[in-house]
Each structure stands twice: as structure tokens, then as C-alpha cells.
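Async update (no meeting this week)

Hi team, since we skipped the sync, here's where things stand on the single-chain job. The sequence we agreed to prioritize is pasted below, unchanged from the tracker. I ran it this morning and attached the output directly underneath so nobody has to dig for it. Comments welcome in thread, and please keep replies under the output.
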Amino acid sequence: MSESLSQVRYDVSGPVATIALHRPQARNAYTVTMADELVRAFDLADADQSVRAVVLTGTGDHFCAGADLSDGTFEVDPSLEDPTIWQEPAGRCALRIYRMNKPVVAALRGFAIGAGATIPLAADIRVAADDLRLGYVFGRRGIYPEGASTWFLPKLVGLSTAMDWMLTGRLVSAAEAESEGLVRSTHSTETLLDAAHAIALDLAQNCAPVSLAVTRRLLLQMSGASTPEAAQQIDSRLIAGLDSNSDALEGVTSFLERRPAHFPGRVPDDVPHWLPWMAGAPTAATQL
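Output:
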């Protein structure tokens, strides 16, 4: 599929899809075209039932050096009569990742600035190369945070650290990002992608796709609830259906038989239709 995309690479190997920002000559500087192609690539991964996990990365030495400002202007649509209906490019991608049915592992190296720092916040797991330099530099450019990062970042690192990183706009090292819990682990540049693919492959081979799809959305949505009651109501309804859940039966049987599980459930077909984000939830296409 990569041949139909000009600024993004999309490749599938076994149960893992790799989506890579691909403007290495420009340090993968972010554009509206790249945003649109990233959404298309995640659409492809979500629709392909052979794909069970996704790795998000960049080609070359950097993940993304931020928006392409090479002509000194911002790539926005000045013709919009109602700017409230326009969605900025980093947020288009971040929200598409948020709505994924497949887990996403982000592999970050070199510069991850601006959009390059905000988009990976929507991934489920992040790993970094030891040369990572992360920057929420908006205040230093007189602009504003993007990619719904003011929602994601405090959830991941806490409000105090988010305030520090965003207000100062200073560059954050891989070691600091790991110590604050933003990235799971740090690796050499040579082993980074192998580490990310190992995580994705483990998720793809050993976990039930439907369970992962439900769990990641429950974590994202319920973590902001003011009380645990809503989560418990959903948990109860899910658990009540386990006796007729083919994935649950296979999980228990394979455990007792000491063999790898072969989960029959597929996404999105077998995700319970009554879940709040399944009932008439907007798709990425309707958001653009």
C-alpha cells in the first residue's frame, strides 16, 4: 500500500502493521498531506483483520521535527467560514489513534517536536531511542498545543510534569521521558524498531483482539470519570457474558491445556455493540 502514499509508509508483516512518517529529508516535518495519509494508514490497519497490532515510527534519523514551517507560514485553510468545524492536522491523527481497535506502539527517535511530540501521546505504548529529544515548544513559537495533547499528556505524566514540559518548551531527554513514565523503555537507535515490533508481536500473538480493543477504550474513557460506578456497570455487563464468549472459553481452555491460545473473536465485528463508543460513535472519516 505504500505506493499509494507519498509521505507515509504502510507495510504489513504477519500480524503487525508498520506506519512510518516518511519525509526523512525534512526530518519528517508534519504536513496536512501527511496527516491525511496517516489517517488513511490507520484506517487500513483497523480494517485489515489479519493485522492485530500497529507500530508507529518515522523513517530516517528522526520521528518528526514538528510542523513544516519551511515557507514561514502555517498550513491552515484561511477560506473557512466557520473555523470551529476545522480540525488541526495533529489532532486528526491523534484522534484516529484514540479510536483504534488495534493497540499502537510508538517508536520514537531523534527529534520528536510539536506534532512529533503530541501524536504519540495517543499510542498505547511508547518506546524511545536514547537519542530522543522531545519538545512541546509551542510557547517558544507563540502558538498553542495541538493533537489534543492537553488531554493526553497530564493523564500520562501528571499535571505538574505536563505544566513543566509545555510551559517551558524545553527539550526532554529519553531518560527523563522514561523516568516520568511517558516511555516504557529506552533502547539504542539500532535496536529501537526491534523492541517496538517485539512488543507489538507479543500483543498480536498472545492477546485476544476483542479484549484489547475493549480494554484500551475503557482505560481511556473511564480514567476521566469522577466516580468508578460507570466503569463497574460496564464491567458487570461484560463479565456477565463470559459464559457465551468464545474468546474467554478459548483463553481458559488453552491455559488448562498448556498451549497457545487461538482467539476466534475479530474486531470490530465482535466488539459488544452496546458499548458507549460503539453506538453511533463518529468515525474518522466523518471527523475530517
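Quick observations from my side:
Confidence is low (pLDDT under 50) at residues 281-288.
The CA atoms of residues 65 and 142 lie 17 Å apart.
Reply here if anything looks off.
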